Amino acid sequence: MALLQISEPGESTAPHEHRFAVGIDLGTTNSLVATVRSGMSVVLSDELGRSLLPSVVCYGPQGVLSVGFEAQTHQAVDPKNTIVSVKRFMGRGVKDIAHIETMPYDFIEAEGMVRLRTVAGVKSPVEVSAEILKVLKARAEAALGGVLAGAVITVPAYFDDAQRQATKDAALLAGLNVLRLLNEPTAAAIAYGLDNAAEGIYAVYDLGGGTFDISILKLSKGIFEVLSTGGDSALGGDDFDHRVYCWIIEQADLQPLSHSDARLLLTRAREAKEYLTYHGEAPITVRLGSGEYVDVKLSTEKFSEITRTLVQKTLTPTKKALRDAGLSVAEVNGVVMVGGSTRMPQIQHAVGELFNQEPLNNLDPDKVVALGAATQANLLAGNRASNEDWLLLDVIPLSLGLETMGGLTEKIIPRNSTIPVARAQEFTTFKDGQTAMVIHVVQGERELIADCRSLARFELRGIPPMAAGAARIRVSFQVDADGLLSVSARELTSGHEARVEVKPSYGLSDDEIAGMLKEGFTHASEDAFRRALREAQVEAQRLLEATQTALAEDAGLLSMLERAHIDSCVARLQAVLVGDDRRAIDAAMATLNQATGEFAARRMNQSVRRALSGRKISEIQI
Amino acid sequence: MDFSQDHFALFDLPRRYAQDKSELERLYHEVLARVHPDKHAHLGDAQRRLAMQWATRVNEAYQTLRRPLSRAQYLLQLAGVDVEKARSMPAEFLMQQMEWRQAVAEMSEAGAVAELEKLHRRLKQEMEEQYKRLQSQLDAAGDASFHAAADTVRQLMFQEKLLGEIDDALEATEA
Ligand SMILES: Nc1ncnc2c1ncn2[C@@H]1O[C@H](COP(=O)(O)OP(=O)(O)OP(=O)(O)O)[C@@H](O)[C@H]1O
Ligand SMILES: [Mg+2]
Questions:
Q1: Is the backbone peptide bond immediately before A256 cis, with ω within 30 degrees of 0?
Q2: Does domain B7-66 have CATH number 3.40.50.2020?
Q3: For an interface test with A, which of B34, B36, B63, B70 has the most A Cβ atoms less than 10 Å from its Cβ?
Q4: pLDDT tens digits, residue range A544-573?
Q5: Atom 20, ligand 1: residue with shortest CA distance
Q6: Residues whose beta carbon lies within 6 Å of some atom of ligand 1
Q7: What percent of chain A has pLDDT over 90?
Q8: Active site residues of A
Q9: A572/A592 same-domain check
Q10: Which residue of A99, A501, B44, B129 is 20 to 30 Å from A590, comparing CA positions?
Q11: Residue A599: predicted pLDDT
Q12: What DSSP state is assigned to residue A265?
């Protein structure tokens, strides 16, 4: 029996140039970059063969910047200018950050997101993260020997809109073309699922340095479907370190510590914690700058006792995620452990007990997220063969809603909705003659606005004066495949159009980012211009290739006139492509994109019709 | 994309309440595999936007048809029946709902897990009966009784809400 083969839209039937794409795990403690090479996902190492890049950025004197291991060595010497765990500040205000009083940084409260004052000037967490990403980008380009077509950046599944947007902004700032923001546990599930040909219900328990995620997935042939997700975006190994740190201070009866001593002691606390994974007792000895000498021993029992509530804090969201998925513990086929902190025996034990089975530890918990992200990046870049294709269905972790009268939340899109998703709701005016309406967008599960995270507040003006309750204002939410929200509002009763559209932005406006990027360029050499040109050329090449494939497959969907128009736009782009005018390339790409819009729509319609009639074809033997 | 197409037509399914759950899921995956933004990520802006619109539409259709209650509500909406304006609910139904809600509050206060679970089972059983009724009301050949179905839907909305409250109460006793 031979079945008709139908290729996916955009999937080239002819071999094309391999596009370099990477997956980046931008972690609280460690970051990694991975790619697919000859069909295998591999983590890329630095020149010394180290795959992990500590997520540490040091702004040194005289404008010397260091990232990673080098930066780490400055931690205790210059804690104020050595930023660790910056991920915990992404999309966060001063009041959101736990233990902020023990941190050595000079925080500045700013609208949307905190800033840090360093010797190199005021930095946003987005800029600090971008420094880490730049290093990984350079590492990838050196290893692959070419321009990157794009990157998949992972984020904790429980990251809210502000944290996701901040991550995407950091990637843009680092000059990366973001193919997708991918949830960390989902990336791990891809790596695990593909490696083990796993089918059934799986839980991914991801406890890293700064965040905790739990995702429940249904894996079936070629489909990764997230059923529910939960977590805590401010819970991780750092908090275990902090408990040990507090315990040491109490035990050794220490005076208030200087910033360097605090950083030193935190490092010792982490070392002790990691040591306890393999030993029954950890000696902690340290000579502080104050002259005080610490010499204490921490036993496994004591450590378990002082961190018990932290372990418990991961179990509550885990149970909730199961409930949200409508599943019982018995229905879970396997629990995949991800993140360095899952090495702790008490975590292994607690998870095993809850799920009533041994957790799965056969993947490297440090690398699995990056490896999964690389596979997805390869797929998104269009490097897939039809037999290694899969569909990934993910969800939003937190409900999205609006403020209504009395400071209450009206949910518009519930948590765990499969993305992309859109929902609209109508509202009306409260007073006679009201001509403007404040639209306050929030994220969270609580009834009271004050308990949810505020994402954006904007005003719809120009509502024609009417009696209270007569106007009809339609507010639409759209969440894209990255889990990012945009909101629009429109007054429907009058023909007169009152409309606003916002993309919530946190601290960094599009203009600010554009400004930073431009600044980067003016400081850069001729090299940077050549790079930008090369990137535009790669992008244009990609578009031409896709257009050619589409024309080869579905020319029949076009009239002669339409075809001629597209052909002329193709010719125009080909003509400017050989030159070095970047603007002309961008303009020609925009024209071609526009010219092929209707064609793309028809192809999509046809593809859907084929998908539906596919069942009929497959039932007929040929 | 034809926005006037209804959710059933989108999946090429008959417009009725009774649906094969696994067939619906299969069609959903089949269509989504073609239109999902991940399949178009390497293409131009216009195509990526189109993919997002399509996938959004397909997700909405699937979510509406997947759950029996929203599927029934949607069928009524297509038939032009406004569920909100359905006739008033029988007094004994309302009485029972009030009693049960009261009971849930008390059990939850007392942390009476076993009793909450028992109530949960009983409610579920009643709802199953209701859903069966709904099918005969909506799919009856010739003269589907939409107004009777609207009454059932309204009651089910109450019952689903109560079920959610019992779940919340059970969750609270666990914490
Ligand atoms: N042997 C060990 N025992 C206990 N903890 C460990 C061990 N090894 C690593 N860790 C902890 O794991 C954490 C780092 O894990 P990982 O690299 O997975 O985090 P991350 O990806 O950087 O963070 P996140 O995913 O939260 O953003 C640190 O807190 C580290 O102390
Ligand atoms: Mg991680």
A1: no
A2: no
A3: B34
A4: 988 998 899 899 999 989 999 999 999 999
A5: A27
A6: A 27-30, 87, 208-211, 236-238, 270, 273-274, 277, 339-341, 343-344, 366
A7: 60
A8: 25, 87, 184, 206
A9: yes
A10: A501
A11: 92
A12: H
Domain holding A88, by residue range, is 21-197+367-393
With bands split at pLDDT 50, 70 and 90, how would you rate the model's confidence at A147?
confident
- Identify all chain B residues contacting A180, using CB atoms and an 8 Å cutoff: 38, 41
Average pLDDT rounded to a whole number, residues A372-398: 88
B60 touches chain A (CB under 8 A): yes
Minimal Cα–Cα distance from B11 to chain A, Å?
7
Q: Which residue has the higher pLDDT, A203 or B81?
A: A203
Angle (deg, nearest 10), helices A582-595 and A560-577: 160
Written out in words, the top-level CATH class of the domain with range B91-174 is mainly alpha
pLDDT at A484 over 50: yes
Mean pLDDT, range A85-105, rounded to an integer: 90
pLDDT (0 to 100) of residue A3:
41
> Is B44 within 8 Å of chain A by CB?
yes
Least CB–CB distance from B174: residue in A319, A381, A382 = A319
- pLDDT, mean of residues A445-463: 85
Q: What is the pLDDT of residue A309?
A: 97
Q: Please report, for residues A203, A373, B38, the alpha-carbon distance to residue A481 in angstroms, rounded to integers and kept in the order given.
A: 22, 15, 8
Closest ligand to Cα A364: 1
How many Å lie between the centroid of ligand 2 and the Cα of residue A340?
8
Residues whose CB falls within 8 Å of the CB of residue A605, separated by 6 or more in sequence, listed in order: B1, B2
From A24, A25, A26, A28, give the residue whose CB has the most ligand 1 atoms within 8 Å, as the site to mutate: A28
3-state secondary structure of A112: coil
- Interface touch A481/B55, C-beta < 8 Å: yes
Tell me, yes or no, whether A548 and A572 share the same domain.
yes
| A30-37 and A53-54 strand pairing | antiparallel
Q: Please report whether residue A235 resides in a domain.
A: no
B2 and A419 within 8 Å at the Cβ level: the answer is no
Average pLDDT, stretch A169-185?
94
Q: Are A371 and A43 contacting, i.e. CB atoms less than 8 angstroms apart? A: yes
Question: What pTM, to 2 d.p., does this model score?
Answer: 0.89
Nearest-angstrom CA–CA distance, A370 and A50: 14
Domain definitions of chain B by residue range? 7-66, 91-174
- Taking alpha carbons only, the member of A151, A595, A195 closest to residue A381 is A151
Q: CA–CA distance from B161 to each of A123, A348, A423, B124, B127 (Å)? A: 48, 37, 21, 12, 12
A393/B63 CB distance under 8 A: no
Average pLDDT score over residue span A109-123: 90
